[in-house]
Every structure is written in structure tokens, then in C-alpha cells.
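SAMPLE LOG
Freezer: B-3
Tube label: C17
Construct: single chain, 434 aa
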Amino acid sequence: MTDFFKGIPKIAFEGRDTDNDFAFRHYDPDAVVMGKPMKDHLRFAAAYWHSFAWPGGDPFGGQTFERPWFADGMQAAKHKADVAFEMFQILGVPYFCFHDADVRPEGDSFAENTKNLAEIVDYFAEKMDATGVKLLWGTANLFSHRRFMAGAATNPDPDVFAFSAATIKTCMDATIKLGGENYVLWGGREGYETLLNTDMGRERQQAGRMLQMVVDYKHKTGFQGAILIEPKPQEPTKHQYDYDVATVYGFLKDFGLEGEVKVNIEQGHAILAGHTFEHELALARELGIFGSIDMNRNDYQSGWDTDQFPNNVPEMALAYYEVLRAGGFTTGGTNFDAKLRRQSLDPEDLILAHVGGMDACAAGLKAAAAMLTDGKLEAARDARYAGWDTPDAQALLKQATLDHCYDCVLRDDINPAPRSGQQERLENLVSRYL
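STRUCTURE (predicted):
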């Protein structure tokens, strides 16, 4: 045991009327929602990078956090793991997620990185056996080190491509060894700043080939989890190849991988792409590539990815409504890709940020389940499109030609009147469940 969280109790459900900061008001893990426990709907995971690796910097200032594990070497890495698993147990989160660079020291070579990762993976395995905490997904950090400044898979240097592929292999091996349920690819620098020095055709082919190699390795190893791509627009590169769900799906179709890869959708990234979170979730569901979510929020007055913990229950309700419409998570879950504000220095802040985020998600889930069970929103949507359910309308959709439509409109003197979309009425309906 460490003393980093000394004096902080294990967080329990106490209900809406409690005045205890260190308690859940909405998240009751064993409460049954639509036939299964809330914990199995939400499948919460804590993000290793923001919680334990981020030093509190921003574009205009350096480190503000002082953590006892902020040092080089395996001893510091193991201390960080000790603290991390203590937090997982305090919160009762069933899962965690990590990049390789979050958990192992950076070595002087690929071989040293691999050795360091293998050692910490063995240490994680002991921790997981002792606590019952599981791995939702692993991934490789192919964006922070200066070698990746021009991308990883899309780099103009084939040596960087090879180094990146080798790193992915080690991270997939680590994920498999720890029983991870997914493997995520986040192309943090898979994009470009200017076409003056970029061959877009080459770079797309390189990215497609890398993804094919990942899928091939999944099948070679027998990995039963999902391969996930996390869409991300703009930041840090100006033009990202994985901009949003639609862009990723087009990329997957181009390389014949739409049946092999799904998406891990982040709320903050959806906002940066000019979408709502529920839009991205609904589109992924319709395209058959919904996998998992990274839960956070952006500051709507800022033009970058602020990665704040979620606190907007109406937004969470609409998000989980789409998750439930997709049939819920299978291998995926709710990972808090969120970080403290750089002035929130205390260990208590880290716990309470997660408590608030988990409660917001739980409240949103309950509202979403009530909406879906009640059926009024679905009924209103069905009524709006009811005209398409007639035999004539189905024939129009499947068989008609422009000439046929022309003849029908002219013959029957069709002159349709506009009908209300009733948006405000439906917004009021949603508010009743919050």
C-alpha cells in the first residue's frame, strides 16, 4: 500500500440525498437497469495516462503536479502502478486502459522499451490477480516522442513505419497477455500540416497497410477482442486522416476492413469535428462499427481538446440512448479519457473528478433507459417516417426511376405540404426523463 490516497474511503452508493462528497448519488453498480446491473451497462475504465502520467502542463505553462512517481526507472513505474490500482479499488472501476509510454520508462532503444514494458506487464498481472481489475484496452503511444513528429504509419521515413509496427506488436502482445478486451489505434499524428511536403496518396496507403498488419496479427494470435480506431479531427495535426466516424468508415471500406475494425468514439473529439457525441454514436451504430467510448467533455468556448470530466447529464442521456439503441457494449465500455484541471493538485481531486463523472454517466444511463423503455421518442420518430412504410413508398425507394416519379407526380397532381419536425416538443419530452 502507498499513502498517496491516505484517508480517502472506498466510494459507495449512498443515493441522491447524501451530503457526503465521497459517495455516489446515481451510480449503484448492482442496480438493475433494463435487465442487467448498471456496472455491466457502463463498464467503467480509468485512463492511466491522464490520471497518472500527465504532469499538469498546458500550451503556455509546464508541470504543476508533483507526484511521488514522477521519476525515471522501473521503481517509479511500479510505484505509479501501486497508486493506480489503489485508485481503481477506491472507485470500484472494473477496468483500466493504458498506452505503453504511460506505464514503462522510455529506454534508449526499442529493445529496452520492450524489456521495460514486459516487466511492468508482469507487475500489472500480479495487481490484476490481486484486485480483480481488468484491462478494457491497451494501445501504443505513437505520437509523443519526437521520432513521430511526422506521423507513425504515415511517416515519410520507412524506418519510423517499421519502428511503429514493432511497437504495436509489443503492445498487442501486452494487451493479450493481460486479457485485454480490445486493442485501440489512435493516430495522434497520422495527418499533415501542408500538402507542400505531403504525398497524401502514399500516406493513406501506408496507414491502410499498417491496419491490415494489425488485423492479420490479431488473427494470427487468436486475439478475441475488438480492434478499434479512435477518430480524431485536427489537433495536433491540421488535417487528420481519421477525422470522424464517417471518415474512418470510408477508410475502412477503401481497404476492405469494415468487417474487421470498429470505432472507439470520444465525446471531445466529436465536438472538435463539429458533431454531437450522439451523432457519432448513431452513425457508428448505423454503419455497424460501434465499439467503445472515451468519455470526457470539451470546454465549448475553447477550440482544443480540453479533456474535462463529464458533468452534463442531458448530454450523457442522449449518448447512452444511442449506446442502448446499439444493443449496449460487448467488448467496449466507458473509459474516462479525462484529466484534472492543472490547478487541481490534490489526491482528493483525482478521486472526486471520477466520482462526479461516474455519477453523471449513471444518471444519463438511467434517463436513457427510461426513454427507451417508455418508447415515446421512438414512436414519434416512427410516426414521422410512417409514410415510407406503405407498399407504394417501398416500391418508390427500391424500383422507381426518375421517369416513373415524374409520371406519378404529374398524374396524381402531387403537391406535398410541409409537416412540422416538432423539435421543441421532443426536446421537452427528453427533459421529462432527466
